[in-house]
Write a structure and sequence with these properties.
The complex is a heterodimer of chains A (349) and B (223). Chain A is of the alpha/beta class and 349 residues long. Chain A contains ten helices and 14 strands. Chain B is built from five helices and twelve strands. A six-stranded antiparallel beta sheet of chain B has the order 4-3-6-1-2-5, with no helix packed on it. Chain B has a six-stranded parallel beta sheet with strand order 10-9-8-7-11-12, with helices on both faces.
Amino acid sequence: MESSGKTPLLGLTLDGLRAVAAEAGLPAFGAKQIADWLYRKHAGDIAAMTNLSAKARASLAERHEVGAVPPARVQESSDGTKKYLYPTLRGRFVETAWIPEPDRSTLCVSTQVGCKMGCLFCMTAKQGFQGHLTAGEIFNQYGSLPERDRVTNLVYMGMGEPLDNLDAVLASLAILTSPWGCAMSPRRITVSTIGLVPAMKRYLAESQCHLAVSLHSPFEEERRRLMPIEHVHPLPEVMATLRAHDFGLQRRVSFEYILFRGLNDSPRHVKELARLLNGLRCRINLMRFHPIPGVPLEGSDEATVQAFQEGLNAKGIVATVRRSRGLDIAAACGLLSTKALQPPPPPEY
Amino acid sequence: MTPEPAGSAPDLLPVRVRSNERLDEGLHLVALDRPFDFRPGQHVGLTLDPRAAPRLYSLASGPREEAMEILFDVHPEGALTPRLAGVRPGDTVWTTRPAGSFACDPGPGLWIAGGTGIAPFASMGRAGLAAGKTLIHGARSVAAFHGAAAFAAATGLVYRRCSSRAEGPDIERGRIPDLIARLDPRPDGPCLLCGPPEMVVAAREALFARGVAADRVRAEVYF
């Protein structure tokens, strides 16, 4: 995307818009008017904000633009899932998956271009890290989605580790859930993390949206092989943080668990998961692994997946098996990547 | 090492800066008083303002030395490193207690480091854990090969360094994955990787391509 040199309005919270409104000579309520145009009416241009004075619009347009960016490309799966490619302000790209179902439709948004976390099973990890998205770029994946009005749920489970870009994620959530923004229920939004504990504490304190934690093994040594973060924030620290937080009756914590053949899919794992999650009001989403090139991991077979789910359910753990969607367009969990569209990394190592 | 995402600040200890050495353009080694014991491979969180969330860095010094050393790249837009690069002896820095489980056993093994990812291996080497290991060290310039002389002199350590753009004595041309592909014999024992995510992911896959089992590979990613 080419930059106009103007500052985008999209992504500003009410505080930011207050400063912008004052700068444009608007009265105090002008910030809410701009927010209404940006986040409720989805105006594409400052000129369309017709309840602002012509002078104020001209003043705004001198320094700012809305900053909405339409997707550059879409791919559609045979199952109806669509994968959108969005340009970013710095000339990069991210992918966004829209997943329609009969009774709901979920939008999976990205928070970073690439990812730093290096999880063994993730395609995004293979492209390395190219940058954080701004709050506006995160919001834009929803705001500029052709199916926006059909979205019932948002999940922050696309490219990147959301809690490694916490300020932008929190700002985007404020826009989506605040009365001055989209006024969406926080119960319709889930943010995923691999367990960055300090950021997780802040997220739990400052947002009311759901939390999903990538677990993938209840055993530390095994999890270390899959997820380097285990060296930094080990599972006991993650679990202690979750147990210390009062989630109330409405807010949900869930765990993501990809089943790998012969690695984390045994009755021993079921038993340890039941012990680990004992007493925590939560659920586990079991996920099929989608093989990625160069990584010696295989997904569990269907019988094992089913037995694992039944084993957890028998121990009182609510476990569901997530359907793989958009597999034929690489839109399924763990497959998003824009590596081919990024410039090559500096030849340092 | 790993910048810590913002969050509530854990307990912080004030420590005194002993020295600040500029090793290369944008690469510094800061020595601090050591107020606690640590294990080689562990990290601490550092901040110059106790109200700000600390950023994580692997310790590069040996666990029995008086000072603890922090090796870091300066990120011009970063919250901490431009200021950390300017600290002087006698200044105060705030540190968390050491944490982390990126550990190494005595005996054979492969260490792979990119850039400042050499820090935990420098600590392990100074703790006497280098014997039997092969170390592959990649860096962007001759000056950025921190600890190269000590590694080259370490008893029982096979030290190989590479760079795709720096030239110098014993520097092999190419990236770390290229060197892994040329390793002979195939790596034995645990393989520990540390550095930027792009390097870690590429090196990990190069190891898999050499037939190294996934359960022998452990990575520390700088984030």
